[in-house]
Amino acid sequence: MKSVAIVLIIICCISCSSTTDSVKTGTYKSVKLSKIEFGIRYIFQSVKTYTNFCQLDLNVDSTFTYTTCGSIQTGIWKSFNDSLFLFAETNRFRNDSLNDAGYYGLFPKIPEKPAVYKIKRNKLLQFIMFDGNEKGIEKLKLVQNSN
Description:
eight-stranded antiparallel beta barrel; globular
């Protein structure tokens, strides 16, 4: 009986210990949420939408390229504990003609604050506030490791 209690205490300590996931360099692509996961996040976290077709390339030299359907950002990345911070230095349209004239005279802005992702194993997770205060989520999965 005593050995069973010791084993249970050890299992509890191991499962409760704080392990920090570290970010891996490579290519991350957006993951489509399953209907079940989206439903759970909709009910419990008020998530109304999620991103698709995004790609994040984290380079060994701490630079990154983040590509969406409409723009390309570049800059530097840093990680601390279980968080990844993207500090954008450039933000351009993917379409070169828009970079010359803009979209109705508007050009993509360089974000003032870094984008922050939570690191969970080989995935990155970020909550985003869209226009109209609509809460969204971006989930990126490591598809090609550069190590």
